[in-house]
Each structure stands twice: as structure tokens, then as C-alpha cells.
Write a structure and sequence with these properties.
Layout lengths: L1 E4 L5 H13 L3 E4 L11 H6 L7 E4 L2 E4 L1 H12 L9 H31 L7 H22 L14 H13 L8 H11 L2 H6 L6
Helix pairs in contact: 1-3, 1-6, 4-5, 4-6, 5-7
Bound molecules: glutathione.
Length: 206
Amino acid sequence: MLKIWGRRNSINVQKVLWCCGELGLEYERVDAGLAFGVNDTPEYKAMNPNGLVPTIDEDGFILWESHAIVRYLARKHGVGKLWPGDARAAADADRWMEWYDTTLWPNVRPIFHTLVRTAPEKRNMALVEDHRKLLTANWKIVDAELARHEYLSGDAFSMADIPMGVAAYRWFNLPLERPPAPNVERWYQRLTERAVFKERCMLPLT
Ligand SMILES: N[C@@H](CCC(=O)N[C@@H](CS)C(=O)NCC(=O)O)C(=O)O
């Protein structure tokens, strides 16, 4: 049985839980991270020396890094589905997952931590505004891509939509000025109609 460590409100844990849901995989989840602790114990750090969530254990195979986990599960259980069957389509999907890490998330993270995890009197709103502008430019790139097809790497939902979808949930649910991005809005609306996304990712931001 697949075991997943990580609290439900973690963006990185949500990617893995969403992926499992799309693939119809059962799992046992152990609360870990922030108030739950666990991730700071020597036992946990022996699995994941970063002390971060998520981590999975699949019959003794330990893996951490949310995108590596999503790719692993997609390749193992979802070729032609979450993992596009064609090598170029798979590379295309993979590219968006990389882009999330290198480009999009570095702009979402400071906004999220400021608006959700920092007391109002301590918030650096200039920092939020700088990253909001950068993020607006990032979503413009995504908007142009989504003008050509329904999902990020083509007309079918794939692993690429998972990280980008959880980031979009934060973008659309934080109190920010958002210039229109009609294709992103349509794509996000389609994601919100997926039962697993709704159940596992559309949670209060804490
Ligand atoms: N690159 C890692 C980042 C993992 C990460 O930063 N996890 C956060 C939660 S989203 C964490 O463990 N924070 C400490 C905690 O929750 O105690 C991944 O994608 O898995």
C-alpha cells in the first residue's frame, strides 16, 4: 500500500493526492508538517533528509520531491493518461512542471507567505506587488499557450496541469488584482469541475 506523509493543506502534498485521485490509487496518508510535526523526527529525516513534505513509501521505495513523485506515479500507472504516451508530448508536459519550479512558484511563494502566514502589521506589501506583477506576466505566457489547446500539454488533462492547477487555485483565491487572462480562467474553471481537485485541493488557504 502506498503511504504518503504530509498535511492536506500543503500545496506539494496536494499535488500528490490529486495525482493519486486521477489515477484511482489508494493510499494511507500520515499527517506531517507544521503543527503536526513528524517531519522533524530522526525517523522521518532518515527517509527525507530535507525534513519537508511530501514523502512516499511504496513497499520500501522511498521518494520525495512532489514533482518526482507525480512523474513516478504517472509513468507507472498513467501512461497515455497523466503521462502522455508520445515522448514529445511527455517532454512538453514535463517542461511545464519544471517551469512551475523555476519560474512560477518563486513568485507565488512570497505572496502566499505574506498574505496567509504573516501578521497584517508585518506584511511587506511592496514585495507582494513586485511578485504580483511578475506573476501576471507568467500567467500571460500560460494564457497564450492555453489559447491553442484545452490543457497545458494538449487537449487532454496531464501531469502538467497538476502543479499549475494548485498554483492557479492560490492565484484565484488570494486577494490580488488579476488582469484578465481568459484562457487561464477557462482552463481553471475546467479544473474546478474535476471531483478530485475539488475535494483534495480546493481547501481553505492556511
Ligand atoms: N520541492 C519540494 C518542496 C517541499 C516543501 O517545501 N514542503 C513544505 C510544505 S508545502 C514543507 O514541508 N514545509 C515544512 C512543513 O510543512 O513543516 C517538493 O516539491 O516536494
